[in-house]
């Protein structure tokens, strides 16, 4: 029996269009349309690496995100040397904190902290706040390490503690600093309580002096330095490639601020940090981030290691000597471009060279003797204009001459169409780019309207890399993030059927951006939101995962026939492919209408189709989101369905993405 409130809801839904879209319709289902799949002659091959991820150090995605280090400003090299640190002065304590750079532990990062305790009382020293709090889990071991030297008088006992809310002690230990020369020390901590906003405290228990540098606190479960829960979500995506180190951070707001991959190699403690491109919220949205620096602890070697851990192709993007054209627009003079081109050639050698080659030796010395197998390299991010085409031509010529096997990716600019877009595409064809990087951030309706965007693209020449895309709903209020709604994710799914259906033209695709800290974001929406302890995969994440986990081998033609009386089913989008490894037809259908859609399915060119099919469905209300700490509203549900033969009917829920995996035996010609 419906409650009076439920009845009132239906009355309101009938009179308010938005609400009507959220309430399941009680109207009769529309007459069946017919979806025909021709499995007799599979078409073009689908790139096995087609569905990938885009990583940029935005929204604290690296430090404070995927990189599991918990200490902020660990080497005291931020412009404000003690940013992230604070004085700890317990009862009756007296002392000083000073920054020095004479006789440093690490010459490349010379600043270090001196703690001098005249009267320690109940403890004098320093604390670190972490990245919007340190997420500490009970039972998860932590490796604390640092460089230190004692003062001239005597050894000092350094007390190491983690404290949470209401000053609760989560764990503690002690290290005796007994050398006057810089020495590495370490200690394993085992917290007994969980706290999302804890802090690290280092205090002296007796009068004395100690110098500290390169202070680190890392979970022992962080294989290769990556935060385990976020890595688990990335693994579950099964990405075919990882594009890194980003978009705008590659360019920088000026050339000095651009990403320089060689600065990110070598011993982690010797990598010099620099201000992040998104410092001070330069994009004009999100949370103010005056402490946003890049430590480069997650550098190019770690990016390649990440790809190896995920079984994904590495796809690096390098500066072409042009800073962000929306900001400074600074360009290196054409006659000074050679060092930028050499950086590209050296990177290929770093990734693929023999361990005795100059840059292959650097890679091997860092712990990976085997080549990483680099196949792709993007020149520039969202550049445009004749200056970019000239620079791309010079990169292309040099790379082809030495590494003809590398697929070179060019830019189509930041727009999805228009005069600059068309000029760049014409230039990319003339300059023999292998792929052209297209970006689109637009309302959900754009993605629905462009699901057939690539149906009529030229089948020859450069292929498409859909390098950055996301459906952008309206912002609920100024200063709030754009929501990751199911409506946005469903629109992306419809668009992705068009990418897959045209896999002979579209070879690679990645949603952007990948990660965002809920307390330190500059861009929205994003694929995964997280805080210090938890992560929330968005509806868009589950769409990406559903496509990636249901890869197939070759395109199958699909035709949708809609009777005149069933115009509502015009909101249907579909792609089909054959998985050669499993002998299955993989059918993806998006129903973007508010009513269920009955479809008569016809799988032609097969014999013996029948039995049980695997069905995965994603469906939710248009405004539904997945939030931290709450049960998800949009996740895939998988079940088995009975298939009587090559012709059968299926109902597709409103506002849904459905994948059917149908076992088949192909008919003989």
Automatic annotation (TrEMBL):
Domain Alpha-L-arabinofuranosidase C-terminal, chain residue ranges per copy: 467-656
Enzyme class: hydrolase
Its EC number(s): 3.2.1.55
Signal sequence extent: 1-20
Protein's name according to its UniProt entry: non-reducing end alpha-L-arabinofuranosidase
Family, per entry: Belongs to the glycosyl hydrolase 51 family.
Pfam families per the UniProt record, alphabetical: Alpha-L-AF_C, ASD1_dom
Phylogenetic classification of the source organism: Bacteria, Pseudomonadati, Acidobacteriota, Holophagae, Holophagales
Recorded superkingdom: Bacteria
Catalytic activity: Hydrolysis of terminal non-reducing alpha-L-arabinofuranoside residues in alpha-L-arabinosides
InterPro entries xref list: Alpha-L-AF_C, ASD1_cat, Galactose-bd-like_sf, GH, Glyco_hydro_b, Glycosyl_Hydrolase_51
Alphabetic keyword roster: Glycoprotein, Hydrolase, Signal
Species of origin: Geothrix limicola
SUPFAM superfamilies per record: (Trans)glycosidases, Galactose-binding domain-like, Glycosyl hydrolase domain
């Amino acid at each position: 029996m419906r409650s009076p409130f439920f009845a009132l809801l239906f009355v309101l839904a009938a009179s308010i269009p938005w609400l009507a879209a959220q309430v399941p319709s009680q109207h009769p289902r529309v007459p069946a349309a017919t979806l025909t799949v021709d499995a007799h002659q599979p078409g073009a091959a689908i790139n096995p690496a087609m569905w990938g991820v885009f990583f940029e150090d935005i929204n604290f995605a690296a430090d404070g995100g995927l990189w599991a280090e918990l200490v902020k400003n660990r080497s005291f090299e931020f412009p404000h040397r003690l940013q992230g640190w604070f004085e700890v002065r317990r009862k009756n304590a007296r002392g000083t904190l000073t920054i020095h750079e004479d006789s440093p532990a690490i010459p490349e990062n010379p600043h270090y902290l001196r703690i001098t305790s005249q009267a320690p009382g109940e403890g004098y020293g320093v604390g670190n706040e972490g990245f919007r709090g340190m997420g500490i889990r009970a039972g998860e071991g932590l490796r604390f390490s640092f460089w230190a030297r004692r003062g001239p008088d005597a050894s000092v006992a350094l007390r190491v503690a983690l404290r949470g809310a209401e000053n609760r002690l989560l764990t503690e230990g002690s290290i005796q600093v007994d050398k006057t020369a810089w020495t590495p020390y370490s200690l394993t901590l085992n917290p007994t309580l969980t706290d999302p906003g804890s802090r690290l405290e280092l205090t002296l228990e007796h009068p004395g002096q100690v110098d500290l540098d390169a202070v680190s606190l890392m979970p022992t479960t962080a294989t290769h330095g990556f935060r385990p829960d976020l890595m688990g979500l990335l693994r579950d995506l099964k990405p075919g490639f990882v594009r890194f180190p980003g978009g705008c951070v590659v360019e920088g707001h000026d050339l000095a601020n651009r990403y320089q991959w060689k600065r990110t190699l070598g011993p982690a403690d010797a990598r010099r940090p620099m201000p992040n491109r998104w410092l001070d919220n330069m994009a004009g949205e999100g949370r103010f981030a005056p402490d946003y620096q890049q430590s480069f602890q997650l550098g190019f070697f770690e990016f390649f290691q990440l790809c190896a851990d995920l079984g994904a192709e590495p796809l690096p993007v390098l500066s072409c000597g042009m800073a962000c054209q929306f900001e400074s627009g600074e360009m290196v003079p054409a006659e000074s471009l050679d060092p930028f081109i050499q950086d590209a050639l050296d990177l290929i050698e770093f990734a693929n060279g023999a361990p005795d080659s100059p840059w292959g030796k650097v890679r091997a010395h860092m712990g990976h003797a085997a080549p990483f197998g680099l196949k792709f390299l993007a020149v520039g991010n969202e550049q445009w204009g004749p200056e970019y085409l000239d620079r791309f031509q010079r990169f292309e010529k040099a790379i082809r001459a030495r590494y003809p096997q590398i697929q070179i990716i060019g830019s189509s600019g930041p727009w999805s169409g228009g005069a600059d877009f068309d000029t760049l595409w014409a230039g990319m064809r003339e300059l023999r780019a292998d792929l052209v990087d297209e970006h689109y951030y637009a309302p959900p309706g754009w993605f629905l309207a462009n699901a057939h965007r690539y149906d009529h693209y030229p089948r020859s020449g450069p292929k498409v890399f859909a390098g950055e895309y996301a459906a952008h709903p309206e912002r609920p209020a100024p200063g709030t993030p754009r929501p990751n709604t199911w409506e946005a994710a469903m629109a992306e799914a419809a668009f992705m059927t068009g990418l897959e259906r045209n896999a002979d033209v579209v070879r690679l695709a990645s949603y952007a951006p990948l990660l965002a800290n809920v307390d330190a974001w500059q861009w929205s929406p994003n694929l995964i939101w997280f805080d210090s302890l938890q992560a929330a995969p968005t509806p868009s994440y589950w769409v990406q995962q559903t496509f990636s986990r249901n890869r197939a081998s070759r395109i199958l033609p699909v035709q949708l026939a809609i009777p005149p009386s069933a115009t509502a089913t015009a909101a249907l989008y579909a792609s089909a492919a054959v998985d050669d490894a499993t002998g299955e037809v993989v059918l993806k259908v998006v129903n973007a209408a508010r009513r269920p859609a009955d479809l008569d399915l016809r799988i032609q060119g097969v014999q013996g189709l029948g039995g049980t099919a695997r069905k995965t469905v994603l469906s939710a209300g248009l405004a539904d989101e997945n939030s931290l700490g709450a049960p998800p509203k949009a996740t895939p549900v998988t079940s088995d369905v009975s298939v009587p033969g090559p012709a059968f009917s299926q109902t597709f829920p409103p506002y849904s993405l459905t994948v059917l995996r149908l076992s088949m035996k192909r008919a003989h010609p």
